[in-house]
Design goal:
Helix content is about 75%, strand content about 0%. With about 160 residues, the chain is mainly α. It has a single domain, classed as Ferritin.
């Protein structure tokens, strides 16, 4: 595995993750009704840091392999949808709108996982925590939209 490729993939991950700093949950999020199985706040940075490292390794391992085009396309798609989800959910406070991004995010992570397994066992294995996490996040997003039907999206005209 190339350290240079790992750093490129990790840079892409941390750039996507920067939306978390740009659109932090804040007080608004604390007021939402959440299911009892919502992970504690400290789990999120630990999970994302671990996921970013693992999927960066997976990307770096497979990038130079013959036939890696589909896996890398799914890798890029998951990064784009992951980057988009945070501003919609936390920034615009559109719980149902975030579900419209969560669907292709899930498909992208699932596609990347399958494609990575077809190329390299370890790369596929490194995507499994992300697949688990995005599954939990999708269920959490759905349940929070259900539990908070009166939540108003952010009014951009008042900014």
């Amino acid at each position: 595995m190339s350290l240079f490729l790992f750093l490129l993939f990790f840079l892409a991950c941390t750039s996507a993750g920067a939306t978390g700093a740009m659109f932090p949950p804040g007080e608004w999020y604390k007021t939402l009704n959440k299911p009892s199985w919502t992970p504690p706040d400290w789990v999120f940075p630990v999970a994302w840091t671990s996921i970013y490292i693992l999927i960066s390794i997976a990307g770096a391992r497979t990038a130079s392999m013959d036939g890696s085009g589909v896996a890398l396309a799914f890798w890029a798609c998951q990064g784009a949808f992951s980057t988009l989800w945070t501003p919609i959910f936390f920034g615009l406070r559109r719980l149902k709108g975030a579900l419209l991004v969560m669907a292709p995010l899930f498909v992208s992570v699932l596609g990347a996982t399958i494609a990575m397994f077809q190329l390299d066992f370890w790369s596929g294995l490194f995507f499994l925590p992300y697949l688990t996490w995005v599954t939990i996040a999708a269920m959490l997003n759905y349940k929070m939209a259900q539990l908070n039907p009166m939540t108003k999206p952010l009014n951009l005209s008042k900014l």
